[in-house]
Write a structure and sequence with these properties.
five-stranded antiparallel β-sheet, seven-stranded mixed β-sheet, D-tyrosyl-trna(Tyr) Deacylase, Chain: A
């Protein structure tokens, strides 16, 4: 849009004064020559330069000339780089110390170790209720003198109002944990971890399933492959049969050369996972249940017996960004709506994000966030818009928490195998079919810090990693 209109709108937003200066500088700047090493890497990958959108600018001084800008105003699919928008918005609005609560209620009388009545577990969006924390919750229930429940365990999941989800819809991989859907009572990401441990003397690999699921027949071992067999594609060699939610079986073998391995798999019946996990864990802990585990709503006026509390948002954001956890990101996104409206919907979360974005960056085109995780074909943001957001984030009170959540190049998270010089950048990665992206902060040799956003949208995007590595190294070499 014309620059004067942008300037007039920004008069209503205090933070926009910086953005106006940055926009004016960018328009006036002659630009930096395109890095030859990036062009060479693109050529080797057979990618045209037009597949790439780039924005490189000073993180500390938004008025400084933009170092590199190419197709930076073009909205493109960012893949998981969209998590930067979600996590910064949450840190800024909820605060790094925000926690999720999961109240547990009883409706009945406890006598002699038995509860004559029902237990209610009210999910409120905690994305960290993994197996260990479920065990602690049920252990705390037993600590209240309850070993036998003469009634039901009722799961209240009404805090999230999200549409039914087909885990195969996105990419035809329903058993991949990254396709799990958000749930107000999300337990262990609706996934089972299968651990394989070779027992050479017995000629088998023992299998451990976590968490234990009620009503599921589990094969306890699988034969070892012939001596000398290489590890290779060990998952394929198992010939797993996991599409039936009532049983888990294997028709193949396990190579002893693999040692101990863990295979996380999304449960074949996601809506039924929580009930099976709660009942299975309760019985595994020696508890008895005369009724069933079912869906329901906490009766009005009932007071919690106790409340479990999640790790802080700062810790959750670290898991979201370091390891690109999609369902956790969606929970963080939905929590924006839950805190404002009392119930979480995707439309509500998008509206909260819209108000937040417009209140800080005025007329800077806002992202199309979709589900907030980047696991989407519809999500869009421009490199410049994301870069502007990252510049603001650098000067914000929550900058330390955001930056610490990003993978370190060549060190950890999704960038531990990066070929860029180790430790030179904190960057969020993103990859989908036809998309490869990085965005975050690069530490220059001069001591300056730079915002870097680079997104590739092309059928051959998977080959773009060396070009992105070259761009990271070029940004770091600023002397």
């Amino acid at each position: 849009m014309p620059f004067p209109a942008f300037g007039l709108l920004c008069l209503r937003h205090a933070l926009c004064a910086v953005l106006v200066g940055a926009a004016a500088t960018a328009l006036a700047s002659p630009g930096t020559p395109w890095p030859a090493e990036v062009d060479a890497a693109l050529a080797r990958a057979r990618l045209p330069r037009e597949a790439l959108s780039v924005y490189v600018a000073d993180a500390q001084d938004a008025r400084a000339p933009v170092r590199l800008s190419y197709r930076a105003q073009e909205p493109v699919n960012p893949a998981s780089v969209m998590k930067l928008v979600t996590t910064y918005a949450a840190l800024d609005q909820l605060g790094p110390a925000y926690t999720w609560k999961t109240p547990v209620y009883i409706d009945g009388v406890v006598q002699g170790g038995s509860l004559k009545g029902d237990v209610y577990i009210q999910g409120q969006g905690d994305p960290t209720l993994v197996m260990e924390r479920l065990w602690l919750m049920l252990r705390r229930l037993q600590g209240q003198g309850i070993q036998v429940i003469v009634g039901d365990i009722v799961l209240d999941r009404t805090a999230f109002d999200v549409p039914e989800h087909d885990p195969a819809r996105f990419d035809g991989e329903p058993l991949r944990p990254y396709n799990a859907a958000p749930d107000a009572l999300l337990l262990n990401f609706k996934s089972v971890s299968m651990g394989f441990a070779p027992d050479a003397a017995a000629g088998v690999a023992r299998i451990q399933y976590d968490p234990p699921l009620a009503g599921v027949q589990r094969q306890g071992s699988v034969p070892l492959a012939a001596p000398g067999a290489e590890c290779g594609d060990w998952r394929a060699s198992l010939r797993a049969e996991l599409s039936d939610p009532s049983r888990a079986g294997f028709q193949g073998v396990y190579p002893a050369a693999c040692g101990e391995r863990v295979w996380p798999v999304a449960f074949a019946d996601p809506p039924g996972f929580a009930a099976r996990a709660v009942e299975g864990m309760w019985r595994e802990m020696g508890g008895k249940l005369t009724g069933s585990v079912r869906q329901g709503k906490v009766p009005a006026g009932l007071r919690p017996l106790f409340i479990t509390t999640s790790p802080t948002l700062a810790e959750v954001v670290r898991d979201v960004n370091k390891f690109s956890n999609n369902v956790m990101a969606q929970h963080v996104f939905l929590t924006l709506a839950l805190q404002k409206n009392g119930v979480a919907t995707f439309d509500g979360a998008r509206e909260v994000l819209r108000q937040w974005w417009q209140g800080r960056w005025g007329d800077v085109p806002m992202p199309v966030a979709d589900n907030g995780a980047g696991l989407s074909r519809e999500a869009r943001i421009s490199a410049q818009a994301l870069g502007r957001m990252l510049q603001t984030a650098w000067t914000s009170p929550v900058m330390p928490e955001l930056v610490a959540s990003l993978p370190i190049v060549g060190v950890d998270g999704t960038l531990r195998r990066s070929k860029s010089r180790a430790g030179t950048a904190h960057l969020k990665t993103g990859s989908l079919r036809d998309v490869m992206a990085v965005a975050g902060y690069v530490h220059g040799a001069s001591g300056r810090r730079y915002v870097l956003v680079a997104m590739v949208n092309h059928a051959a995007a998977a080959a773009a990693r060396p070009a992105l590595d070259a761009l990271i190294d070029w940004t770091a070499r600023d002397q």
